[in-house]
Write a structure and sequence with these properties.
- By secondary structure, the protein is an alpha+beta fold.
- It folds into three domains: 80 residues, Beta Barrel (conserved putative lor/sdh protein from methanococcus maripaludis s2 fold), CATH 2.40.420; 91 residues, Efflux pump adaptor protein, beta barrel domain (Elongation Factor Tu (Ef-tu), domain 3); 74 residues, Helix Hairpins (Orthogonal Bundle).
- It has four helices and 21 strands.
- Helix 2 packs antiparallel against helix 3.
- The longest helix is centred in the first third of the chain and has 36 residues.
- The chain starts with a helix and ends in a 5-residue tail after the last strand.
Length: 347
């Protein structure tokens, strides 16, 4: 029993000794950057900033069109005004429609009187027919007259609904909260049906359209749907607001090789209007093939810089610049992103 316990302790001690000597003395920190000589790292692609400029516009734009003929008697909103809760932009004269509605009402009352009268006559002749005092044809004629009157009443009710709808459409409406951007109507003017009366836009949400290349679109997707837009004209130093990807056009322009992407902003601007300049900054891989390496991985000999591969081979690189985070941007035809190198010991 004691021999078995001793054997297990020996095996456990051997494993601990193996792990202690096989673990590098210089481990990477939580950021993944090597911090000690001999540490292995993978070269990362160097990034460059691409700045794109767009201008705000309304989320929706509406052409205001008259559906009925009429003389304009009132215009409630001018350019720059916001439509009130009732949604009324302008009102056309409804005199002739009102007269037609009154005539329809009189005709309905006349028919209802006739229907009541013929209804009594039909019931009276049914009683006479039961006593065989009248002919069947007389009752059939009265029943037919009653039915035709009821059909005419239904037609008048339909006409009444049509006239009420026409009267309602003499009030030209725009969605509440929208802003008038163009006005072509004046009180007293005769407006034929189909006349363009102006334009309105929904500026409660602003769109900023961009044309992105496939690489730029991929970089936008890496922001996980929350890109930042900078508005240089807001305030003394400009402001940066979080935007949303509103819509992506599935179309592709073969000439520019770009696709349309609209970003949206809901709040944060002093004025919600069109024409505000917005700047979108994206990070793209450096087209020159440069990579980022820890500055401590570079060794310098005779004004030339070298990287040491994992297997000990050395590669000469061109130093482009040093970063503020203890990294350097280098370039070489023999170095690709993902290649593994060693951190060099301090001289």
């Amino acid at each position: 029993m004691k021999g078995a316990m001793t054997g297990r302790l020996i095996v456990l001690l051997s494993i601990l000794i193996f792990l202690f000597f096989s673990t590098p003395l210089w481990a990477a920190d939580s950021s993944g950057k090597p911090r000690g000589p001999g540490e292995i790292f993978a070269a990362k692609p160097a990034m460059r900033e691409v700045t794109l400029t767009g201008y705000t516009r309304a989320r929706h734009v509406l052409d205001i069109v008259s559906e009925e003929d009429g003389r304009c008697i009132k215009v409630k909103a001018d350019v720059g005004n916001t439509i009130e809760k009732d949604g009324i932009f302008c009102v056309l004269d409804t005199t002739f429609v009102d007269l037609a509605i009154k005539k329809n009402s009189v005709d309905q009352k006349r028919l209802m009187k006739n229907i009541a009268y013929y209804g009594k006559e039909v019931r009276r002749y049914e009683q006479l027919l039961a006593r065989e005092s009248v002919a069947q044809s007389k009752l059939d004629a009265l029943q037919n007259t009653l039915d035709q009157s009821e059909f005419e009443l239904q037609a008048l009710k339909t006409e009444e609904a049509s006239l009420e709808e026409r009267r309602e459409r003499h009030v030209v409406r725009v969605p509440s909260g929208w802003t008038i951007t163009e006005r072509n109507a004046e009180p007293g003017e005769w407006i034929p049906a189909g006349t363009h009366l102006g334009k309105a836009g929904d500026f409660r949400k602003l769109l900023v359209p961009f044309s992105l290349s496939p690489e730029e679109y991929r970089a936008l997707g890496e922001l996980h749907g929350s890109p930042a837009l900078r508005f240089p004209g807001e305030g003394e130093k400009g402001i940066t607001l979080e935007a949303e990807v509103e819509r992506i056009s599935p179309a592709f322009d073969p000439q520019t090789r770009k696709m349309g992407v609209d970003l949206s902003v809901r709040k944060g601007l002093s004025q919600m209007r069109g024409g505000l300049r917005a700047v979108l900054t994206l990070e793209l891989p450096d087209g020159s093939g440069a990579v980022l390496v820890p500055t401590s991985a570079l060794s310098e000999r005779y004004e030339e810089f070298w990287l040491t591969r994992e297997n000990g081979d050395q590669v000469r690189v061109v130093l482009l610049d040093h970063g503020s985070d203890s990294t350097s941007r280098v370039r070489s035809a023999e170095v690709r992103p993902g290649d593994r190198f060693k951190v060099q010991p301090e001289p």
